[in-house]
Amino acid sequence: MHMIIKGQIEAIQCVLFEVEAISASYELIEFGVALATGEATQAFLGTQGDVWDTQWDMLLALVRAITALIILGRYHDHFLARHQVRD
User: Per its UniProt record, what Pfam families does this chain match (predicted)?
Assistant: First the structure.
């Protein structure tokens, strides 16, 4: 079996990049729907007067991903070591 991600740092980076990519994609889809439906963009997006709503959403997604990696990382590594499939 060939490993694409060889180290722990690369794995963490990959997880964080994926979380941010999904978060950004969701925000772009949400914005596109608001434009396509012709509704008032502010009302549809639910920004509630916060012009930084999208950026807050993405920042909080990143913070939550980092928190999950810190809290669950050791448990995950221990679980994988215990249940490693032997070739």
Answer: DUF2238 (PF09997)
